[in-house]
Amino acid sequence: MVNVASMSLGDSLASAALDTGIGSSFTLTRDRKVRLVIRGNNNTFQSFERPVGGTPDQWRATDFTGAGSGCSFDEAISAEWGQGLDHLLHLSRRA
């Protein structure tokens, strides 16, 4: 188990999404970013973005949405957690 108390907000959001996510999808935005959306087991959605062709340390935690609620973030994610998002993006592209 990861100690989230010592993590940045962006890393905590990535950790939680990767740990509890039950599905993912990706889109390309108009401003040439990859948008990865991870669906949580309680029908919530956490989004992450980075430039097309970007590196793991360029991921940002963005929108979080759920039934009747939501909030926006612009939180940096470390390369360590960005590698996990890159791996999930690769798997999403193959699906």
Task: Give your account of this protein's structure.
With 95 residues, the chain is of the alpha+beta class. It has two helices and six strands. It has helices spanning 9-20, 79-94; strands at residues 21-28, 33-40, 45-51, 60-66, 69-71, 75-76. Strands 1, 2, 3, 4, 5 and 6 form a six-stranded antiparallel β-sheet that branches. Helix 1 packs parallel to helix 2 (79-94). The radius of gyration is 12 Å and the shape is globular. It starts with 8 loop residues before the first helix and ends with a helix.
Q: Which structural traits does this protein have?
A:
6 strands, 95 residues, alpha+beta, globular, six-stranded antiparallel β-sheet
Question: What secondary-structure arrangement, pairings included, does this model have?
Answer:
Layout: H1 9-20, E1 21-28, E2 33-40, E3 45-51, E4 60-66, E5 69-71, E6 75-76, H2 79-94
Antiparallel strand pairs: 1-2, 2-3, 3-4, 4-5, 4-6
What's the short version?
The protein is of the alpha+beta class.
CA-atom Rg in angstroms: 12 Å
Q: Low-confidence parts lasting 5 or more residues at pLDDT below 50? A: none
- Strand proportion, as a percent range, falls in 35-45%
Mean pLDDT, rounded to whole units? 91
Through-space gap between termini? 28 Å
Largest sheet: 6 strands, antiparallel
By DSSP, the count of extended strands is 6
Structural class call reads: alpha+beta
Total count of helical runs of at least 4 residues:
2
Can you write the helix and strand succession as a string?
Answer: HEEEEEEH
